[in-house]
Amino acid sequence: MIMNNINNSSSNGNFMKNVHLEFVQNKKTLLLCVLSIWALYIFAGFCMGWKGMGGGTAEIITFSIMAMFISTIVASMAFSNMKTKEQRIFNLMIPASVESKFFTRWIAVVPLLFIVLLSGFYLGDFARIGTRLMEGEALGSNYMNIINPFCFYTGYGDPDGALICCLAFGSYFFNQSLYFLGAILWPKLSFLKTFAALYVLQTVCGFIFMFNYNSFALSFIDGHGITTLWIIASVMIMLTLTCYCLAYLKFKNSQVVYKLF
Q1: Which of 178, 175, 149, 177 is nearest to 164 (CA)?
Q2: Which is the most buried residue in 76, 87, 193, 194, by most CB within 10 A?
Q3: What Cα–Cα distance (Å) separates residue 192 from each residue in 19, 106, 188, 198, 233?
């Protein structure tokens, strides 16, 4: 029991030291990244307010598309310090466990980035409202209300709101996990390579589906739409977790001489 407590304390200490090391080494880059994301949302909100647009579904969808795009770019840079031989040697020599190094990046890219993007939603909305106030529009109208993306993604109280939420956020995290996995598979030009690989995969799957359309058992979907959507949401969650596990295994087996497999 004592030895287990010592090992757990050592692991926690290594993790926090690794977090501190990563923050110190990348402090300027992280700060610039966060400020750039927020500035992009504020600029988008300013443009919407100046033109009298946004303030509803269109704004939430626009901000969501921005979040999806930003999340894939950031995820593709999660292992940017593995691009060169020298960087890999330095990373492998850091006195911290593989788990500590991996989860430091995962926490930064997945939950913390999500919080930054969610903050961007509200900063952009405040910028839209502030711009309209400067234009002379009075408070009280529906346009001047602060948006709530969670209400939108739960169907505004729809009985199937949980399903809508799972599909929306499931697609976000699944798409991001693909680029997170791609970041460790091919650190150089990761975003472009992952995008190209997914494009080819989607094209091939599309052709397979078209040429075998009649052989697919699509009759199950008729009358079972909700069940089918729950299955899709469950599959996305499972694939997301699979991508994280594969990324961990690839990172764990990383060597100085880089090999794809």
Answers
A1: 149
A2: 76
A3: 28, 20, 9, 10, 27
pLDDT tens per residue across span 142-189: 778 888 888 888 877 777 788 889 999 999 999 999 999 999 998 888
Question: For the chain, first and last CA: distance in Å?
Answer: 39
Tokens representing residue 139 in the block: 């408070």
Model-level pTM? 0.84
Integer Cα distance of 119 and 37 in angstroms: 10
How many other C-beta atoms can be found within 10 angstroms of the C-beta atom of residue 142?
Answer: 7
- CA-based diameter of the chain, in Å? 68
DSSP 146: P
Structural contact between residues 37 and 118, judged by C-beta atoms closer than 8 angstroms: no
Cβ neighbours around 16 below 10 Å, total = 13
Residue 37 CA to residue 242 CA, distance in Å, equals 28
Query: Residue 257 pLDDT > 80, yes or no?
Result: no
The CA–CA distances, whole Å, from 29 to 36, 43, 104, 260 equal 10, 21, 16, 27
CA distances from 138 to 64, 122, 135, 141 (A): 27, 20, 9, 7
Please choose, from the candidates 79, 47, 81, the residue with its C-alpha nearest in 3D space to the C-alpha of residue 66: 47
**Structure confidence by residue, pLDDT tens digits, 50-82:** 887 877 888 899 999 999 999 999 999 998 888
Per-residue tokens: 167? 């599909």
* Residue of 67 and 132 predicted with greater confidence: 67
